[in-house]
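Supplementary Note 3. Input sequence used for the single-chain structure prediction.
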Amino acid sequence: MVLCQKKGIIISSIALTLLGLGMESLVLQPPHTSVILAAQPQDAVAKKIVGKWQVPTNLSSGIIFTEDGKIYVFITAIEAIQLQYTIDPTFKPGFMMFRDGQGKIVGTAIFDFTEDGELQLDLNISGDEQPAITTFKSQPLVFKKMSDSTIIPSLVTIKTPTASELKAQADQDTQLEARQYIEIMNRGNQTIYTEYGLFKPNLEEFIKGLPSETRNYSYNLKIINEQTLVQSIALAKRPGLKSYIGIVYTIQPSSVNNMTTKSIICESDQPTQQLISQVPLFTNREVICPAGFSIVN
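The predicted structure, written as discrete structure tokens, is reproduced below.
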């Protein structure tokens, strides 16, 4: 399953928390002194990671690790985000921690090197101290080392986002992920009704690879009435995130006898981790969101 990708951002495959990081929301700040220890380049693993890495399928972007503990994530060929990193090569797989310019933890990663010397990396930069990643996702991104050089071209604009800026953007991107999954589930439920004339719990038949749980959300299908209404739920697993309900329901157009379906997506008005128990309401042949939720386009 492929979700919408935002132009020029290679990190969309690694961590949705960096997906779509808006440059207009970040303030260009002057250089500052690093407030954490460097990556200890005398260590063999730390030395190996220093340099420029790229995903072979996206050569316009990449990542540069420097000897003094900086990481530059290239959003485009001329825009990069700067953070600080430290590594613990004794952890298996290798463990990495990221901080902003004030030394606040903004994310973690695990990494390993393949037999071909490529860098397998799975990171989560969320802007706050989330539980550390300990196992690779099923398809972590693999980087190829392009150069040992850590020189940043002079035409590159370097952004130094704070933890709060990263968190705000990460929450928006994570909620977008949930909405996209709910939209896919809605479409799957509509396909099921077209095929069988009722709603069934076998979404996997029509949607391959849809997770029941991610780092930030758990997903659930609830059939209210197999003839008339089904809802898909994306329940936030951590504070600060909104939850979502997808609703597919049947209607009978006045001009024909056959039933058809419509769908909506409801977003919680406030961040919540509470399971929704209220059933959506019908009014004038339309469905409205439960209390505390509002329809989103």
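The first strand starts at residue 51 and ends at 55. The helical segments are 44-49, 163-196.
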